[in-house]
Amino acid sequence: MGIIIKKVSSKQELKTFIRFNYELYKNNPYSVPDLYDDMLNTFSQKKNAAFEFCEADYFLAYKDGKVAGRVAAIINHRANETWNKKEVRFGWIDFIDDMEVSSALLKQVEEWGKERGMEAMVGPLGFTDLDAEGMLIEGYDQLSTMSTIYNYPYYPVHMEKLGFEKETDWVEFKLMVPDKLPDKFVRISEIILQKYNLKIKKLKRKEIKEKNYGQKIFDLINEAYAPLYGFSKMTQGQINQYIKMYLPLIDLRMVSLVENEQGELVAVGISMPSLSKALQKAKGRMLPFGWYHLLKALFIKKPKILDLLLVGVKPEYQSKGVNALLFYDLVPIYQQMGFEYGESNPELEVNKKVQAQWSAFESVQHKRRRAFRKSF
C-alpha cells in the first residue's frame, strides 16, 4: 500500500496534525512540544492575524493506515511582494524515517504551490518570522527552546536526497551569565550612554497600554528586522495580537528599553525564563496540570536557563554599540535572579553585527539550522 496524502479538513484532523509532532518526539529528551491551544490559534484563519496576507493548507501523510507525516503549505504574499519572489513555504514538517513519506509530503507542497503560480519552495518556515523556522542540522543533543524547531538527524538527509539545497543558515549560542560584568564592558556602556544622550528605561505594566509601549516595541522590531531574510512587516492586526498574547506573560525586569533624549525608543531587549522543561512536563497541554508547570517556571521557581526572545536596535543606532546597553542593564538582573546561561535563539549566520555582541561573554555556538530551497 502506497502513501496517501490527505488535506486537513476537520477539527479532528487538525488535532491529529498538531499532536503528530508530540507523538513522534514524546520520548526525546531534547524536543520541546508546542502547546496544543497555541497551535490551534496559529492554524486558525479567524485567530491568526497573519492570514491577512497569507494562505495555507495542511496535509497529513498516511502509510499502512497510520499517520506517518505532516506538512503545512503556506504562501506569504506580503513577503513575496517585499522580496520579489514567487515562493511557497513548507512549515511544521515532520515525518518518520521513510523517503516515500517525506517525498510525498513535499511533492504535495510543490503541486499546491504550482497551482497558485509559485516557482520555488522554501522551508521550514512559518507564516512569518515570529514563527519557528529552520531545520536543525547541528545540536541534536541540546535542549530545544519554545520558539525553535527540533528534529531528528535524518530530516536534513532526506532534504538533500530529494534535491533541496541550502537557502540560508541560522546559528544559536549558549551564553554564560558572568559573575561580574567586565570593567571594559561597563566603561564602554557608560560612554555610549553619555555620547549619544541615551537612557535605559524599565517598563511598567501600566505603560504598555497607557503610553503605548507595546506598539512602540513592535514598531521598532518592524524597522530593525526589515532587512533580514524573509521578513515581512507586521501588520497592525499582528501587532495587536502579539501585544495581547505575549506581553502579559513577560517579567518586566527582564525587558530593557533604550531611549534617546527625545524619548524615542531606539533599542529593546526582551527575555524570559526558559519554558522548555515546563513544556515537556506539560506534554503540550494546559489541562489538567500543564498550566501549573508553566506558571511555576514563570513566577515561582525559575529555571537556570533564560531565553533571549527579541533584541532590536533602530537602524541608525546599530553601529554605535547601543545593543551593549541592553546587557549592561539586564546581566545584573540575570545574576540576581539566579540564571546560569541564556539561549540566543536563531541568528542569521551572515548577521555578524548581532554575533559580535556576544564577544564580551563566554559563549559557544551549539546549534545550527537551515532553510532549504528547491525550484520547480
From TrEMBL:
InterPro entries in UniProt: Acyl_CoA_acyltransferase, BcerS-like, GNAT_dom
Domain N-acetyltransferase intervals: 22-184
Q: Where is the signal peptide?
A: none
Query: Which parts of the chain are coiled coil?
Result: none
Identify the PROSITE patterns for this entry.
Answer: GNAT
Q: Which PANTHER family match?
A: PROTEIN YGHO
Q: What is this protein called?
A: N-acetyltransferase
The organism of origin for this protein: Bacteroides caecicola
